[in-house]
Every structure is written in C-alpha cells, then in structure tokens.
Specification:
By secondary structure, the chain is an alpha/beta fold. The chain is 32% helix and 24% strand. It folds into two domains: 68 residues, OB fold (Dihydrolipoamide Acetyltransferase, E2P); 257 residues, Rossmann fold (3-Layer(aba) Sandwich), CATH 3.40.50. The protein has twelve helices and 17 strands. A hairpin with a 2-residue loop joins strand 2 and strand 3.
Length: 365
C-alpha cells in the first residue's frame, strides 16, 4: 500500500532537466521531496502536490524521501516525445520513451548492425557505488582515451535522474554516455532488455568499456536469493552470450558488522557461484595479509576458482585516483576511508578492464 499526503511546495532546493529537489510542508513539517520532471512536470513554490510518503514513514535508506505523485497546479501535461515503448508499464506513472530498438530512432540502423559485443570488456557490479571507482581508474589509466558507457539496469531505482553520481561522472567525462534498460529510464539511450542495452552501449554509444550496474537503492534481505544483486550473475551470462568479456566486481568489505557480508559478501557467492552459468574474470584487490587470507579462503570454500578466473590485482591506487577526481562516494553510508576494501575491489575490476583495453589498442597499432 501507498501512504499518500498532500503538501505545499515551499522552495526549490535544486533543479535540473529531469529532477527537482524541493522542500515541502506536509503534516505540519518541512521535509524534502523529489519531483521527476519527466513524470509530473515542473514544480514551483506554492504548488500543491500529492506525495508518496511511504519511505519516510518506514524509515528507509536511499529511498527515504517523499516523492511527488501529482502536481495539482498542473491541470494537464502533454507528451510530444516520439516513441511507443512504455517503461514503469501499467502503473499510473508509465512513461513513454523512444527505445533504440524502434525503427523510428535515428540511430536504430547502428543497433540493427550490432550482433555481438566483439570481446568488449564489461565490468559488472552489484551496487551503484561501484560505478565511481571503476570509471575513475579506467579514465586515469587510459588517459581518457577509453569510451566508458554506463548501462543502468532496473535492479534498483528506475529513473536515472536519481543518480547524482552518474550525473557527476558524466560531467567530469569519466563516462561518456548512459543506457537505461528494462524498466529503468532516462538514459541517453533507452533499451528494452539488458541484452539490447549491452548491444546499444557497444554498437550505438561506441563503448570501449561498458560498466553494467543497477542504480541507487538496491533491495536486499538476509536470504540467499532475495536481493536484486542476483542480476550480476544474469549479466555475466548475458555478456557471454553476446560475445563480450565479463568482469565481475566482488562485493568485499571488512567494515560491515554483519558476518554474512564480511570479506566477500554472501550475495557475491550466490550471484557468481550459483546464478552465473558461464565464466567471468573476478579481480580481487591486494589487501592486508589477514584480510587477504580470509577472502581467498572464502573463494576456495565457495569453489569460485573452479568456475571463474580469479586474479589478484594491486588496486590501492584506486583511493588516490578517486580523490584526484573529487569523488566523495559512500556505500551503505560508509565513506571511502571507512570501507577501503570495497572501493579497491571495484577499482581492481576497472584496472583489469583498462589493461584489456590498452592491450587491444596496442595490438591494433
């Protein structure tokens, strides 16, 4: 069920083309809300809005803000955009997009010509915060020569506009384009499935390296298969099917108090040990001896080396590279300094992808 309240817009906190952060008065309190301009149109002070207040009421994390469901000041809103594909289908907020698969898309001819990823490295993460270290180290090591395209799946937030991180990375040119697939929307290119999204990233957005990971706000439980990160294994399969080079980022942490997430998270063991039916490369960062021993013991106990190519990579540079580009990212509320191994693990995957790109570039000369 949805908890619904009426509120009044007091002021705009920030605004861009696709998203507006506002301060609203609701139930006698001044609180923050998000307005997706693509869904509910523009908002201004004194507008009366209908709010979904469920997340704040339940005290959730990333999604713990109000969301504008309707702006009562706007009696009508027209849609002039081309396209026939609906995302967030069969909900009151279904949005029409022009998908790359549609013949009327001006670059559809490029998509139709693309049948394979042709060995392209695809870094596959399980948490949105992995995107930053991966993109940063690739940009640094390739001196900005590698075109990095972000494929956002529908495993978490559906609007790309929610991701301040993706916007920052694009502004800093650490990624050059975005593709939103499945029910996710708002990317430079829209795709119907993860398969067509991967092909669009390569054949249309001209990616040298693709980073595939969900948006902000994953869903997880203490159960083996009850978390949206299972898609990491599904993406490994998809990349193999399409002839790419899958590189999976293990979720590693020694800052999480939950034993199931100590070292390599149980979610990684499920996604790569049980869901992934095809092999991938799993880069593991060099760490302090005791931590490294703990992680490699987990790798052997879960037989990851029998299915995948697990390699050790010196990835301490990741932390300095992120600092160089001014990336102040958190994961599960923890900063880079508080969860070094998490960011180094993501960086290790980026380092390996960059090495493959540089090797291929040298071979072409």
């Amino acid at each position: 069920m949805i908890r619904i309240r009426r509120g009044k817009v007091l002021r705009l906190l920030s605004s861009s083309q696709n998203i507006t952060i506002i301060k609203v008065k609701v139930d006698g309190l001044e609180e923050k809300a998000i307005n997706y301009n693509l869904l509910t149109g523009a908002v201004k002070p004194d507008d009366e809005v209908v709010l979904n207040t469920t997340a704040v009421y339940k005290g959730l994390g990333t999604g713990g803000v109000h969301f504008v469901m309707a702006n009562l000041a706007q009696k009508q809103k027209e849609t002039a955009e081309a396209g026939h594909i609906m995302k967030t289908r069969y909900t009151p907020c279904q949005v029409k997009v022009l998908a790359i698969e549609e013949q009327e898309h001006p670059e559809n001819y490029l998509f139709r010509q693309t049948r394979s990823l042709a060995g392209t490295p695809v870094v596959i993460g399980s948490l949105h915060s992995m995107l930053a270290p991966v993109a940063a180290v690739i940009y640094y090591l390739t001196r900005g020569q590698a075109r990095v395209v972000y494929l956002m799946t529908d495993g978490a937030a559906l609007p790309l506009a929610l991701s301040n991180l993706a916007a920052e990375l694009k502004e800093k040119k650490l990624i050059v384009a975005t593709v939103t697939c499945g029910q996710a929307f708002g990317g430079d290119y829209e795709a119907v499935t993860k398969y067509s999204g991967l092909l669009a990233a390569f054949g249309v957005a001209k990616a040298d390296i693709i980073v595939a990971v969900m948006g902000p706000g994953n869903t997880g439980t203490a159960s083996e298969f009850g978390f949206t990160g299972v898609e990491q294994g599904e993406l490994v399969n998809a990349v193999n099917i399409l002839g790419g080079c899958p590189i999976a980022t293990p979720r590693i942490s020694f800052a999480d108090n939950r034993i199931r997430h100590k070292g390599i998270s149980h979610h990684t063991h499920t996604a790569l040990g049980r869901i992934a039916l095809n092999p991938c490369v799993i880069p593991v960062p060099a760490m302090e001896p005791e931590k490294e021993k703990y992680v490699w013991q987990q790798i052997r106990e879960n037989n990851l080396e029998e299915k995948h190519r697990v390699i050790k990579i010196e990835a301490a540079m990741t932390l300095k590279i992120m600092e160089k580009y001014g990336l102040k990212v958190t994961t599960m509320g923890r900063s880079i300094d508080q969860d070094r191994e998490f960011f180094m693990a993501a960086g290790a995957a980026g380092i390996y992808a960059a090495q493959q790109y540089l090797k291929e570039s040298k071979a072409k000369k």
